[in-house]
Specification:
The protein is an alpha/beta fold. 32% of the residues lie in helices and 17% in strands. An eight-stranded mixed sheet has the order 3-2-1-4-5-6-7-8, sandwiched between helices. A hairpin with a 2-residue loop joins β5 and β6.
């Protein structure tokens, strides 16, 4: 038997509870869920704001960077008063101001092969809001090994993309699209190439949507579909992603069976 809602919860989540596809049962699932958001920057900001407001019971935040004034053009979770602070510390304070009834756990660290399993293990859904390939591949491989769903998003200049990687059942993973990282120096970071300020808000909102759908079991997820967004032309396109039987991680005969720490080579981590 599920725990009854408190009076505050009934008032706070009323607009969810009256929705036919969420209702009290769906809101209870959200309150009982645990979601880890990797990155408290451009993508992480809208993701974290919406998940906290929606009542995700436990939210984990991974980041090791500090707030810079150049972040404020798009990283809406932070304010001018937070410049110089740890992004995790800043994020926790602002999220608690939005919803003090949920648990928020900070992981002020850089993910690597030594700690990623320990950090991820308690959570039900992992959301990738990173801006560098080493962590992106590490997160993909770790979620595949742990069997946890991964909500992926990325942004660059005026374009973004999002999908969901669901381990097992011949569903594609990130390496089915990109088997190995690009050579060092071939892909510019957001710091080098720039990013349209509102772009992460669109992609981050999509990531939060997919996470909530996964938790409540409602709707059709982006598993097997890559959603592409062009902000300049306000155009959405969808590309089908197929499982690669030869994928080095999720294929029939995996060649990658341990985590790999790639050298950092693609800009500044968590600066999206």
């Amino acid at each position: 038997m599920s725990t009854p809602f408190t009076e505050d919860q009934v008032q706070r989540y009323a607009r969810h509870i009256i929705l036919p596809n969420i209702g009290g049962a769906g809101q209870r699932k959200l309150l009982d869920s645990k979601v880890l958001v990797i990155g408290a920057g451009g993508l992480g900001s809208p993701v974290l704001l919406y998940l906290a407001a929606a009542g995700i019971g436990t939210i984990g935040i991974v980041d090791f960077d500090r707030v810079d004034v150049s972040n404020l053009q798009r990283q809406i979770l932070h304010t001018n008063a937070d410049v110089g602070r740890s992004k995790v510390e800043s994020a926790i304070e602002h999220l608690r101001a939005i919803n003090p009834t949920i648990e928020i756990i900070g992981h002020d660290t850089l993910l690597n092969s030594a700690n990623v399993f320990e950090v991820m293990e308690p959570y039900d859904v992992i959301i990738d809001g990173t801006d560098n390939f080493p962590v992106r591949y590490l997160v993909n491989d770790a979620t595949q090994f742990l069997g946890k769903p991964l909500v992926y998003g990325s942004i660059y200049q005026f374009e973004g993309q999002a999908t969901v990687f669901m381990p097992g059942q011949e569903a594609p993973c990130y390496r089915c699209l990109f088997p190995s990282p690009p050579p060092p120096g071939t892909v510019p970071s957001c710091a080098e190439g720039g990013v349209f300020g509102v772009l992460p808000g669109v992609i981050g909102a999509i990531q939060a949507t997919e996470a909530i759908k996964l938790i409540t079991g409602e709707g059709t997820s982006l598993v097997g579909r890559l959603l592409l967004y062009d902000a300049l032309h306000m155009d959405f396109q969808e590309v089908k992603i197929r499982w690669d039987a030869d994928c080095p991680v999720c294929g029939k005969k995996p060649t990658i069976t341990e985590l790999i720490d790639y050298d950092l080579f693609c800009g500044i981590p968590s600066q999206n």
